[in-house]
Amino acid sequence: MSFWEYVGNRHQQLLTDAYQHASAVFQCMVLATLIGVVLGVVTYRSDWAGNLATAATSTILTIPSLAMIGLLIPVVGLGVPPTVIALTLYGLLPIVRNSIVGLRGVDPSLVDAAKGIGMSRVMRLARVELPLAWPPILTGIRVSTQMLMGIAAIAAYASGPGLGNEIFRGLASLGSKNALNQVLSGTLGIIVLALLFDAAYVLLGRLTIPRGVRV
Question: Are the C-beta atoms of residues 137 and 205 closer than 8 Å to each other?
């Protein structure tokens, strides 16, 4: 059976796996973004706190993904929980780092001007600092998403959702007539999803970042 015949026969299952893969990555990215930006906001004013946050999230990224999921299985079981926890943790570093860099890069004179017109610290953060720091934060989100697309495939080891199941089934049956087709369809599916997500982020950047800030 050729690759395209395999895809035609299995298109329904492949679409389901692709949807589950994209959904898992998207939801984990939302969690990672919320946690990462909060960590950036809390720590960017202090050098040691910012370095600590960056070092902690960097350490998480050094743990092999298979080992991370394997360590989580006895604690939270199989399926979605270890997938969500692992992907969220792995997605933190680029977001935390870029949040800190972006917030520290805001022109102090703009913050002082906002303070001069009576804005509270929270208002300055929400209306001045975070909007100006948004471009590097969005870049961090894009980098994290590309990483998680690949790492999410390992979730199949813990019976997690996504295209990794197709890859693992192919690897487990090497030598059979459809093993290569399974691995190839799962891999290409992840690549397509990564490109679609990246295109969506480019569009989001054009819609949310003023032209003057982009320049």
Answer: no
Query: Is 0.70 surpassed by the pTM of this model?
Result: yes
pLDDT digits (tens, 9 = 90+) for 31-85: 999 999 999 999 999 999 999 999 999 999 899 988 998 889 888 888 888 899 9
Instruction: Tell me the C-alpha distance between 95 and 101, whole Å.
Output: 10
CA-to-CA distance for 153 and 126, rounded, in angstroms? 36
Neighbour count for residue 191 (Cβ, 10 Å): 13
Give a three-class secondary structure readout of 1-23: CCHHHHHHHHHHHHHHHHHHHHH
Q: Please give the single-letter amino acid code of residue 11.
A: H
Helix ranges (H only) for the chain are 3-43, 47-62, 65-76, 80-90, 92-104, 108-116, 121-124, 130-151, 164-172, 179-208, 211-214
Q: Give the integer Cα–Cα distance in Å for 158 and 138.
A: 30
Cα–Cα dist 83/155, whole Å: 6
